[in-house]
């Protein structure tokens, strides 16, 4: 995250490769309406069983460079974003041609998770969800340790979970994860030589 580009929801580690999947633009299981967490939220209209694919996160598919350029002029006091990293080449901007999935709020005790298949993002239930319950998943917004603390404060979490971590940001900064990954690669290479 830099001052010029808003954070993007990071791709989760869970990936699978399937051929053609139907687009899930709307879902009879959910509806968007006002939320006490933030602006609008998405709520279950009927019981949703654990493992159910609820809706697809849709929007304009753009490159990372386009996403950065598009939101370069975004105000410093605006922590709102509809960007989702779908792959190393593609970002989904649900602010353009997006559906109700863009209104699913962050939650530190989520009832959903995102799954990426062939650069498409789907929202799946990770536990049974009752009618009237608001859907939420952990955004894990990426950030750097050098980011301005005042800017990072814009991503305060308001989910109300008992163990709320207080932020929509990922637990560790991206630059720290890259260093740890590089360190693991070096030690793995040393083991292979020895």
From TrEMBL:
InterPro entries: Post-SET_dom, SET2_Histone-Lys_MeTrsfase, SET_dom, SET_dom_sf
Keyword annotations: Chromosome, Methyltransferase, S-adenosyl-L-methionine, Transferase
Compartments in which it is found: Chromosome
Compositional bias per record (Basic residues), positions renumbered to this chain: 1-18, 176-194
Gene3D superfamilies to which the protein is assigned, alphabetical: SET domain
Pfam families: SET (PF00856)
Cellular-component GO terms for this entry: chromosome
Residues covered by region (Disordered): 1-27, 175-194
Post-SET domain sequence ranges: 153-169
Top-level division of the source organism's lineage: Bacteria
An MF annotation (GO) of this entry: methyltransferase activity
Sequence ranges assigned to domain SET in this UniProt record: 28-140
Biological process terms in GO annotation: methylation
Protein name (record): SET domain-containing protein
